[in-house]
Amino acid sequence: MKLERLRQILETASGKRIAVAGDLMLDEFVWGKVGRISPEAPVPVVEVTGESFYPGGAANVGRNLREFIKHVTVIGTVGDDTRGHHLLELLEEQGIAVDQVVVDPEFRTIVKTRIIARHQQVVRVDREEIRTPDEKQVAAVSARVREMLPNLDAFIFEDYGKGFLNPDLVRQVTADLKAAGKIVTADPNPQHPVKWAQVTAVKPNRTEACHAAGLPLTDPIDPPMEDKALLGAGLRLLTAWDSRMLLITLGEQGMMLLERNQPPHHIATKARQVFDVSGAGDTAIAMFTLALASGATSIEAAEIANHASAVVVAKLGTATLTPSELIASFEDDHCA
């Protein structure tokens, strides 16, 4: 893609309005250094030097979008607890609308704590509660989305498998979004079977795609265009989910884009350094959706998502990127 075209897409993107629905989390990073092994057990002792907190899960998708657009809304549930209020404060500080977030006193806010020493993740501690919204809550969320429709350009389902995106909610919301002609994308979870019927695009990784297609997981083939298992899973999912396109992320192999009545298209990875893959999928679905909503072709949108992911994996923590960093990535590619 030429740089002039990228700038044109980003200029159009700045005025878009996107909502993200899914499992909201608080990401906590405990930074430290390892100087010795514990005398109590053969494990490293991490001397803590600092802590960082970021919006995680579906909230991180919103955070990625906010770097490029002013109007982002997140939809989900947090607990009426210290961590839940902290997450809402972080989102509000970043200009992300939280008026559609349900504060449930009976729910415990999902928190993922990662302990990092010498640029390596030592351990991750998850505090989570899997809860599916009841019929009344599904109706309430659907009603709120219908109210938002006139002011939306696109909608993202971000499924971390913690229960918020149950099949009834997805079906009702998707029907309203499709009737209104909105772009709808989904980032699925292999442990949470939801039929993503009639959405614009779904973005699984290779493992998720094979699992959802009911095919055994095999080792990746290089080059990916000769990976029969990958291509077979993709074609099967296009039919099963009745979606317009499928963007399968392949880690170090880049991405594979599949569309109805079009040959598969492989996008090679742009990552030059990989420090932390935390949240890379969030960045990919955010940028792919934003690009589609801004008039990019499917291949252009995939290229933008691929470059964006390459930038964030070179950072530590649940990272985002800026428009200038995205442009710089494309500039490096042109100069290479």
Account of the 3D structure:
It is built from ten helices and 13 strands. The protein has one domain: Ribokinase (UDP-N-acetylmuramoyl-L-alanine:D-glutamate ligase), CATH 3.40.1190.20. It is globular. With 336 residues, it is α/β, with parallel strands linked by helices. A nine-stranded mixed β-sheet has the order 5-4-1-8-9-10-11-12-13, sandwiched between helices.
Descriptors for this entry?
four-stranded mixed sheet, nine-stranded mixed sheet, alpha/beta, UDP-N-acetylmuramoyl-L-alanine:D-glutamate ligase, globular, single chain, 336 residues
Uncertain spans: none
CATH level 3 topology: UDP-N-acetylmuramoyl-L-alanine:D-glutamate ligase
Strand order of the largest sheet: 5-4-1-8-9-10-11-12-13
Multimeric status of the protein:
single chain
Spatial gap, N to C terminus = 14 Å
Averaging pLDDT over every residue, what do you get? 93
Give a quick precis of the structure.
The protein is an alpha/beta fold. Helix content is 37%, strand content 26%. The protein has one domain (3-37, 45-335): Ribokinase (UDP-N-acetylmuramoyl-L-alanine:D-glutamate ligase, 3-Layer(aba) Sandwich), CATH 3.40.1190.
Give the helix/strand layout.
Layout: H1 3-13, E1 17-22, E2 24-37, E3 44-57, H2 58-66, E4 71-79, H3 82-93, E5 101-104, E6 110-117, E7 120-127, H4 135-148, E8 154-158, H5 167-179, E9 183-187, E10 201-202, H6 206-213, H7 228-241, E11 245-249, E12 255-259, E13 265-267, H8 280-293, H9 298-312, H10 323-335
Parallel strand pairs: 1-4, 1-8, 2-6, 4-5, 8-9, 9-10, 10-11
Antiparallel strand pairs: 2-3, 6-7, 11-12, 12-13
Helix pairs in contact: 1-10, 2-8, 4-5, 6-7, 8-9, 9-10
